[in-house]
Design goal:
By secondary structure, this protein is of the alpha+beta class. The chain is built from four helices and 24 strands. Strand 13 and strand 14 form a beta hairpin.
Length: about 375
């Protein structure tokens, strides 16, 4: 038998197993691809987040206040009947002008007229009793002078006359009250003005003193506004003010602060301020809205400087106000501040921010302390105008 070589046996085994035979260059390429697939890609550095920033504007702390306001009558009184009864007639309605002495409503007068008639009858009876008692006293006095009657009988006549006189005075008082109650069935305007509210309808049974209308007096008007507790200390009675109204464009009305409420409203926690106009105008209508600019109250020393920022920059650190400041290294810092005044679109800070600080004014609720950011200016600067 002819012997078989080992090399041939290996090749035949390879062909039998079906394994492909790779050339050395292809084998090196395959190994390189496998190594590249197993290696991790190099990390890509994330770009810093862009944030909109502004620098605070430095202003004098004695800047005036600009507040929304409304024109109201200085005096508004509730119109009500002095007696109880059923409302049978209303002669005016909301917005009607009334004159002093004008009848605006009536109650059913039947019961009041019966009481007045009864009081008049009692008064007439009391007069008759007094007349009879005076005549009897006159006769007894003449008879006592002639010693025809005893002194005791004369005293009885005097007592009867005094009692009749007292009864007459009481009857007169009751008749006067009954007459007034009859007159009180008509509700009369005590001042010129405008009906500003209606609180009762025809047919309602009213108690004494229950409001039927509200009457805004004609004449003096006030411009009324509300201020926060950190602003009320800057306002004093007599402070100058100016009022502008969109309903009367191009006109400015001068006035002075007449009254500052000593206590805050229990619901809104604000203080009511009333401004009296120096020259009221007939064009002013109750309920008109506008803006009142109140000058700063005079101080003994100059007010400290404050930094003004858009209100959108305000955040919080715990229960204290704070703002986000971009440091020189590009990281965010949450810095506590002291707010001296709140405006309609701005805040005034007395501490915490310098003039060269870059303060974030947009998206403050999405930031994290220490975050790396890129400061950019606002695209539309007018959106952050102070």
């Amino acid at each position: 038998m002819k012997p078989v070589s080992h090399s041939r046996s290996r090749s035949e085994s390879a062909r039998a197993s079906g394994a492909p035979r790779l050339a050395p260059p292809l084998l090196a390429l395959s190994l390189a691809i496998m190594l590249a697939a197993c290696s991790k890609p190099a990390p890509v550095a994330e770009a810093p987040r862009e944030v909109v920033v502004l620098q605070a504007q430095q202003r004098n702390g004695a800047q005036g206040l600009h507040l929304p306001a409304e024109v109201q009558s200085r005096f508004v009184t509730a119109m009500s009947f002095r007696i109880a009864g059923q409302l049978v007639e209303r002669r005016v309605h909301l917005g009607d002008a009334v004159r002093k002495g004008q009848v605006v409503a009536r109650l059913d007068p039947a019961d009041a007229e019966h009481n007045a008639a009864s009081a008049r009858a009692e008064l007439a009876s009391a007069r008759q009793h007094l007349d009879a008692a005076e005549k009897q006293l006159k006769r007894d006095t003449e008879q006592a002078r002639d010693n025809l009657i005893s002194a005791q009988q004369l005293e009885q006549s005097q007592d009867a006359q005094a009692a009749a006189l007292a009864q007459l005075k009481a009857a007169q008082a009751r008749a006067a009250v009954a007459g007034n109650q009859r007159d009180y069935t008509s509700l009369v305007a005590e001042h010129d003005g405008v009906i500003s509210a209606e609180q009762a309808n025809t047919g309602d049974v009213l108690s004494a003193g229950q409001p039927v209308f509200s009457l805004a007096w004609s004449g003096a008007v006030d411009v009324v506004t509300d201020v926060a507790d950190n602003q009320v200390a800057r306002i004093r009675p007599g402070t100058q003010a100016s009022v502008t109204l969109p309903a009367l464009p191009g006109r400015t009305f001068s006035g002075r602060v007449r009254e500052v409420s000593p206590a805050a409203d229990p619901q809104s926690r604000t203080y009511r301020v009333k401004v009296t106009l120096e020259q009221p105008d007939a064009a002013l209508r109750l309920g008109m809205t506008g803006e009142v600019a109140i000058a700063p109250a005079a101080q003994g020393q100059q007010e400290a400087q404050v930094m003004v920022l858009p209100a959108t920059a305000l955040f919080h650190k715990g229960d204290k106000p704070a703002v986000w400041v971009v440091r020189a290294d590009g990281q965010l810092e949450l810095r506590p501040v002291t707010v001296s005044a709140y405006g309609e679109r701005s805040i005034a800070l007395s501490q915490g921010v310098a003039a060269d600080d870059k303060v974030v004014v947009q998206g403050v609720h999405t930031l994290t302390a220490g975050e790396k950011v890129k400061a950019i200016a606002p695209l539309h600067a007018e959106d952050f105008a102070l």
